[in-house]
Amino acid sequence: MYRVLLAFLFFNFCYSQNYYIYVAAESDDTVSVLKFDGETIEETDRITVGIMPTENEGPHGITIDPSGKYWYLTLAHGSPYGSLVKYSTQNNEPLSKVELGLFPATMEISPKTGLIYAVNFNLHGLMRTSTVSVVDPEYMVEITKIKTGIMPHGSRISVDGKSHYSVAMMSGELFEIDALELSVNRILSLDNNSKYRNALHHSKIKPTWVSPHPNGKTLYIAGNGSNQIFVVDLESFSITDTLSTGEGPYNLAISPNGKFLLATLKSEGAVSIWSLKNNKFLKKIKNTTSVSHGVVVSPDNKYAFISLEGVGGEPGKVDVINLETLSLQGSVNVGKQAGGIAFWKIEQ
Amino acid sequence: MKSKLSHLLLVSFLFVITSAKSQEYYVKSNLENLEIEVGEVFEPSTYAVDQDGKPVSCPQIVYYNKNGALNSDDGISVSRRRGTIKGEEPGNHKVIALCLGLVDGWLGRDFDVKVSYAKAKDLSVKLDSDQVFVGSYVQPSYEITDNFGFTRYNANIKIKPSNDNIQVDALNNIKAVKSGKVTLTFSLDAVETSIDLKIVKNPIKNLVLSSNMNTARTGDVITFRTMAYDDKNQLISDLPILYSYSGESFDKSNTAAAMIRDDGKFVAETAGNYLITATAGQRSTSIPVVIYDRGIQREVINVGTGLVQERHTSDFWVFEGVDKRDYAVSGTWGADGTTYFWDVTDPAQIRKIDSIQVDARTVNDVKVSEDGRISVISREGASSRRNGIVIIDTTNPYDVNIISEYTTNLTGGVHNVFIYQDHVFALSNGERFYVINIEDPKNPYEVGMFEIGEKGQAIHDVWIEDGIAYSSNWKHGVYIIDVGNGVAGGSPSNPVVMSNYSYESGAHHATFPFKSKSTGKFYTILGDEIFPQGIDLYSTNETAGFLHFVDFSDIDNPEEVARYELPGHGSHNYWIEDDVLYVAMYSGGVRIVDISGELMGDLFRQGREIGHINTGNPNGFIPNATMTWGAQLYKGHVFYSDHNGGIGSSKVLPIKPDNSRINEYLDRPRLID
Fold it and tell me: How confident is the model at residue A52, as a pLDDT?
């Protein structure tokens, strides 16, 4: 039996792998499905999203269900609230929609609870305390809104699925939410401004992303305003190290094996890569267009996919970085202002 | 290779375990088949059972109402802090119980919960009068208070008369049939109350029905009046009169359709013979009226086009330049932030004369100051995410230049703008509008802000006329705001709300104020924007919605009186001059509509449409796909912008001689010269 299984797996490994990615284009109200075969990346489908042709609804955050059967998309703008839409990966047809808060942005599904946690970024409204929406994806109902900070972003779940992390861009805070209790567990002021917690003080750090390490012990925060990455020890819930970056670190990703940390440098149109073995900077790779946005790493740790917004009428792009050679492997045009990016599957 | 194999095997194993584990448990709760009353608080008990039926407690349980967890007055509300549910409205509802943390992944179940009204504790019944005429219906009003202290105004109440002077049918209609006294007993649950009523003979001996016209056109509003007299020929006042009509269309294949209101106002949609009847109790009287076709159709021809082939077009504005020539400016949508300038002095030869590109994907709105010197364009999709407005010098439209940009408080995107007396009214993030002083266009500064202050406030457009702003706020309707007129003490820095009107669809997208020249009435025309089937950016789209005509003559008591609804096509932007409406009906093209006289009912079905033109262009961004964005009457030509084709001009031709005699005695007004 064991031999048969080994033979089956060997057979599969003899053939090339295709990687599938979803990416949202915020200024085109489209989502692209991309296929990368290890050599070239191509767009296999472009889906129009939203319901109002004459309004820009701004697809921003995108994530895939752990089963791979569904993808979820946040639409930033509504009247005025944005929404979360559930799609089938089988035919990319919308299945259900639920209204969230102002400018819902990044989100993830907890493998522990099966619930979606989406930040209400409220990017352009008055500087007010915003929330994290918790949504039951089975029924597509918003269960609750959990108050956090001003302009929360970078919604990410711990590997065990029990904690949700987000950073508040304008109040400069890290929030840890208990994913089961649905309440804030711990808060860390990155500006060391805990005296005036949650107050608007135009954080100099302007944190825009948080990425938990697969080891469950540390997490990494992008300081978009201070050009730094902060290393936070989860046990002490304190900053233990900082990494210098280029201009405007925006989104982060850590390879599933915990080896690489990647940061998009929004202001430079580049991506920087560190080895997490010793927090050593490895390389900065120039992107194929400006305004680097999102980054996601394939589950086999081989490739990183970077979404790039571009400017004005330029198309958005997705660059592929080979993590073995630390080089640009390919690029493909997508809709304007490509932002949210999610890895779907590897197919043999 | 070995490590890869191990990793894959491990992942596969974990996936199988996870899937199997999720299926091992089933959620059980005392919510099953639960029935509670409105106002009742219930504490559920929920747990999981394994495949052997053994109960297992859940680390965390979350309850919510399937209709919306955050909507506490929708059927059932949930207190997560207390772990209780509460009946809010009667009906069959679903409560979801989630068992969190027991297994990896989602584990939950929905339960049907029936909510009923609690038993009545008190029943109060009121009548308008304790005396009614034979043949009249009695209309009581109810107030029921239940055991939880909730008050309601309707219920399945049993009504029992003390004798046969009153008849009560199966639907609880109460009719007085004989003179005399009667006691009505009303009961609900164990509560009962009674009212004495006196039924008297109908005193009306004679009903006289009159009208201000006995012939009219479709769409003309006729006012009927009824006078009731007793057997001494004395006028009886304050009698409720019921109006009705019957009719026969001249066109035998059509229905004689009309509308008649309780106040005796009548308007017909189809030409034909009508009989209007006034009824009071057992008395009734009728008079005939003849309705002729409105007969106002005129030919509309396309005069010129300004093609935009490579991108979608948005809004436009036609204006007289400093040099007295005529120009237009048009925006682009979902593209590269380009704005075009046109010479339209000869509407048959529209020429693109300049363009400007800003950091944006959409320039949704464009406006020009009254003196033609300044243009303001809106930005959405700026790469810096700082959108705002751009102020342009249009003194020479052949060579336009950016004077300044203004983004403070406008970073979220500006969808629409308006210029009024050196101030720009700019929407911010679809939530509110800011007022920006541009007396010195190089140094604009904010002087005021307006928001309606409602939860979920959203704004789509603002239009200013005579110092009054008309703010279109989706579900919250139109807000009429003094921003400089002074009638309510308002100014650009101190906007003061004067009135508000909203309607059920919540799709209120644009407003145009309309002072009727023919009647003196003041209306606001409120337009919907609806895409019922969602969107396809690269094909034609279904549109819906209509224009709501709201009589604001009494600003404190606005009344919606009429609509313009084009079947199969939805409304967008519009323009009114001399009692004629020029409306962009998206896929329905530009429609030119006679809105003279009193307005009531469905204006399209009344034959008030003068003409129309499809604006699709065979060489457009989407060829031949009419998607008219806006319309503007300018120096006798109807200009328009089309989302898929650019801009254009059209002309309504003069009335053709009518040699028929069918309408010879009607005084047909001149509509457009």
Answer: 80
Examine domains B120-200 and B300-652 and report if their fold is the same: no
Question: Taking Cα atoms as reference points, which of B40, B24, B235 lies closest to residue B147?
Answer: B40
Contacts of B69 in chain A (CB under 8 A): 141-144
- Cβ contact (<8 Å) for B458 and A137? no
Q: What's the gap in Å between the CA of B55 and the closest CA on chain A?
A: 20
> Tell me: domain B300-652, CATH 3.30.565.10, correct?
no
Q: What global pTM score does this model have?
A: 0.82
Task: Tell me which chain A residues have a C-beta less than 8 angstroms from the C-beta of B335.
Answer: 313
Torsion of CA B445, B448, B453, B457, to 10 degrees: -40
Residue A54 with chain B: CB contacts under 8 Å: 314, 333, 529, 572, 629, 643
pLDDT of residue B535: 60
Residues of A in contact with B100 (CB under 8 A): 112-113, 115, 179-180
Task: Give the per-residue pLDDT at B19.
Answer: 40
The answer to whether B430 contacts A80, with C-beta atoms less than 8 Å apart, is yes
Answer whether B108 touches A (CB < 8 Å). yes
Q: Which residues of A touch B107 (CB under 8 A)?
A: 114
User: Tens digit of pLDDT for each residue in B276-317?
Assistant: 999 987 889 999 999 999 999 999 999 999 999 999 999 999
Q: What is the pLDDT of residue B593?
A: 98
Note whether A312 contacts B361, CB cutoff 8 Å: yes
Chains A, B: CB contacts within 8 A come to 161
CATH code 3.40.50.620 for B17-116: no
Domain B120-200 has CATH 3.40.50.1100: no
Q: For residue range B424-435, what is the model confidence (pLDDT) as tens digits?
A: 999 998 999 999
- For residue A193, what pLDDT is reported? 65
A48 with B537: Cβ contact below 8 A: yes
- The ipTM (two decimal places) reads 0.90
Each domain of chain B, given as residue ranges in start order, spans 17-116, 120-200, 215-292, 300-652
The CATH class of the B215-292 domain is mainly beta
B609-613/B590-594 β-pairing: antiparallel
CA dist list (Å): B30 to A16, B22, B451:
53, 22, 46
| A82 Cα to chain B: minimum distance (Å) | 11
- Give DSSP secondary structure letters for B136-199: PEE--EEEEEETTS-EES----EEEESSTTEEE-TT--EEE-SSEEEEEEEEETTEEEEEEEEE
Q: Quick one: which of A123, A124, A127, A236 has its CA closest to A176?
A: A236
